[in-house]
Amino acid sequence: MIKEASTLTATEAVQAIASGRLTSVGLVESCLARIEETDDTVMAWAYVDADAALAQAADCDRIRRAGMATGPLHGIPVGLKDNVDTADTPTECGTAIFAGRRPERDARLVDHLREAGAVILGKTVTTELAFVHANETRNPHNPDHTPGGSSSGSAAAVAAQQTPLAIGTQTNGSVIRPASFCGVFGLKPTRGMIPREGVLRTSVSLDQVGCFGRSLADVALLADVISSYDSGDPASFARPRPNMADGAAAAAPVTPNLAWLDLPFYDRLAEDARDGMNAVIDLLGPQVAKMEAAEALSNLVAVQARIHEYEICQHQAKLFETHWDQISETLKPIVARGRKITRTEYEDALAVKASAEAFFADFFVDYDAILAPAASGEAPMFGNGTGDPIFCTLWTLAGLPCVTLPVLVGENGLPIGVQLIGPVEKDDRLLRTARWLQNQLAEETA
Q1: How far is the C-alpha of 74 from the C-alpha of 397, rounded, in Å?
Q2: Residue 396 and which of 172, 178, 210, 330 are 20 to 30 A apart at CA?
Q3: Are 80 and 47 in contact, with CB atoms under 8 Å apart?
Q4: In Å, what is the CA distance from 110 to each residue of 184, 193, 227, 264?
Q5: Which domains occur in the chain, in start order?
Q6: Is 371 helix (H, G, I), strand (E, B) or coil?
Q7: How far is CA 68 from each of CA 22, 60, 64, 176, 260, rounded to the nearest angstrom?
């Protein structure tokens, strides 16, 4: 049996289980022990059913011993953000309004996880309605700091070695930013890649599902498993998906061309994050084209906010009307603002969003990826919000695939991620470029 199995990446654990060097029960027991050891401080989990997880793991081991077919995540524990429906465990979406809520069926992505052999370990803490008001989760590197949001628990659980993989969602910066703060890999694939049926709807135009792991191969593997066409999802597209695991394993055939867009709001970068990004740019030299960004791009931040605020007020209108007294004082003014947005203003914002999508479709003709900060710097102190999402806003609005690599360290010793953004439906190429960047940085520091 492998000692401290909870420290393995998902890819390593898949290989160990397939070879018989590790059992799924052994891996799940190790993860549960790690949760028992650390979660009083980290508080990443909203719900864990140890007995159910061990029963799933035992069934995985039985299937393997019997020589039956196994899936790509056979026996591997996965944490689910608590806005993803599961019929056998509560889904409370970070609010007391949904206390004890038991959906009738699993979300479609959970069906895919179960088919792939994954063990559903439990539900990870999210902010209130997966939006701005923080819940209790702390940063595993320093509990005085936030893990980010809204996928707070998912990022923290992976970073704390409580689970090798976790699911998150992103409507603005809720996968990439907490991955940066917690020092793990975060991947938000192209909008429409992963089905959203059974995931809390806050913005039909912007909500996207993403993945957390401890390696590039891990997040690619997880994203491949849960990606599929969903005829009930207006953002989903009925085309084959790129193979992300193949992309993450591939060597770049030619040296990639990267772009750095110097956006006006980059003055919000902390000094250590700016120094780190400049060091990466200097290391890559002529492979990074630095350019002033058009003013219209920075205006997209307001467009994203208008769409998000209008749509959450439409999707959750009944909840806000009937449970207003249970809504946080953080969220109430945003709802009040969203209710004042007219239909015409909303439709104008959607038109600008479409223009942004067209702009980036042309932009990536010349570049493999955009290099950008994943967050403003190190994680803020707990109690001061979940961090500034603005370094993810444009890419989320345009539905572009994004990945963050945990390669920088701030002045307080906390992690800072470096983000790469690629063209839509070329997630495999983005991950191939990310692998190239990771190798370049590793060679420099070797």
Answers
A1: 34
A2: 330
A3: no
A4: 22, 15, 11, 40
A5: 1-446 (3.90.1300.10)
A6: strand
A7: 17, 10, 6, 37, 49
Mean pLDDT calculated for residue range 40-45: 98
pLDDT score of 39: 98
DSSP secondary structure of 372-434: EESSSSSPPBTTS-S---HHHHHHHHTT--EEEEEEEE-TTS-EEEEEEE--TT-HHHHHHHH
Closest to 44 measured CA to CA, from 158, 140, 125, 99:
125
For the whole model, what pTM was predicted?
0.97
Residues 188 and 210 sit within 8 Å (Cβ to Cβ): yes
pLDDT at res. 296? 84
Quote the CA–CA distance of 67 and 407 in Å, as a whole number.
Answer: 40
pLDDT of res. 443: 80
pLDDT, one tens digit per residue, over 374-404 is 999 999 999 999 999 999 999 999 999 999 9
Q: What percent of the chain has pLDDT over 70?
A: 99
pLDDT of residue 1: 54
pLDDT of residue 298: 86
Contact predicate 131/150, CB 8 Å: yes
Copy the structure tokens of residue 308. Answer: 């998000």
Active site residues: 81, 150, 174
Structure tokens at 79: 């944490």
151 Cβ contact partners less than 8 Å away, ≥ 6 residues apart: 81, 124, 126, 130, 166, 168, 169, 170, 174, 175, 178, 210, 212
pLDDT digits 0-9 by tens, 259-286: 999 999 999 999 999 999 999 999 999 9
Side-chain-side CA neighbours of residue 122 (13 Å): 23
Q: Rounded to the nearest 5°, which phi and psi values hold at 198?
A: 90, 10
Neighbour-count burial of 409, counting CB atoms closer than 10 A to its CB (0-12 exposed, 13-18 middle, 19+ buried): middle
Q: What beta strand segments (E) does 82-129 contain? A: 119-124
Q: Partners of 418 in the beta sheet?
A: 373, 405
| Contact present, 414 and 220 (Cβ < 8 Å) | no
